[in-house]
Amino acid sequence: MSSSFKEIQIQHQKHYSNIPSFPFPSVLSPNPFSSSTLSFFTDSIIAQKPFLDSLLLKTGAILFRGFDVNTAKDFNDVVEAFGFEELPYVGGAAPRTNVVGRVFTANESPPDQKIPFHHEMAQVPEFPSKLFFFCEVEPGSGGETPIVLSHVVYERMKERYPDFVEKIEEHGLIYTRVLGEEDDPSSPIGRGWKSTFLTNDKSVAEQRAAKLGMTLEWFEDGVKTIMGPIPAIKYDKSRNRKIWFNSMVAAYTGWKDARNDPVKAVTFGDGQPLPGDIIHDCLKILEEESLAIPWQKGDVLLIDNWAVLHARRSFNPPRRVLASLCK
């Protein structure tokens, strides 16, 4: 173990007995003989990047706990220290606000709403490979960010529903979403088309949508976006395994607001409707295999978006969790 970080065990972690065995997620805190200051933390990240990269490859997620990360700017410094390239948030569904530098609010949907399991931006071709979360204000209660290993979900679904998995591997999925002009903060998918495509110009939105492989159908007060067919299962080359890389459960169970009917939000790539019973069983598998560590102020969670799906539980305010996306 490197000198600046101490790997610790905490409640709620899962332990996988694969060879080699590993805890999920890894939890790193300051070594008792070193400092916990922000500058020491960022210097340690830069100096020990190969160690952190190999740990992330092995476990899929790292929680940094006990370091002096107090503000959005501190968090931005931590993200910058890793040296990953920034990914602009184009095409994602969640309403978010830029806070400072590369830091955004996490999904701003109302506290009483859960956000279902998903890989970040799995419904568009350009998605982040890494994402960071930072707890600036601890939740009053609830508000955890559950995580689950994607290849485990794939293996369980393949075992239970081989025909269904074969069909989505062959045909992919189509995602359909209706956007208003402006953001709707009452909806978990309430990002309006102007902020989705980072423009007020419909022709620029058309160009950016086309670049994503997305078709737009305009209405008087909004637009329908049609994405796909897009793969639902991907191959993670770095770990040599198939992963459950889609927003199927999130769309089918959670893409609901005044404009959207979740059952119509996602279909097989050939346009056929999905079987609701299998989707709800998949949700059970996601819940069974997941874990949720309660947030503490100053926590920084680094997730490999190729390896891990995440969600959000409902909460009692206050809670402020910030995010940053990396290519």
From TrEMBL:
InterPro entries: AlphaKG_dependent_hydroxylases, TauD-like_sf, TauD/TfdA-like. This is TauD/TfdA-like domain-containing protein. It holds the Pfam family TauD. The keyword Repressor does not apply. SUPFAM superfamilies: Clavaminate synthase-like. Residues 47-322 form the TauD/TfdA-like domain. Keywords: Oxidoreductase. GO terms for molecular function: oxidoreductase activity. Signal peptide: none annotated. It comes from Populus trichocarpa. Gene3D superfamilies: Clavaminate synthase-like. PANTHER family: GAMMA-BUTYROBETAINE HYDROXYLASE-RELATED, TAUD_TFDA-LIKE DOMAIN-CONTAINING PROTEIN.
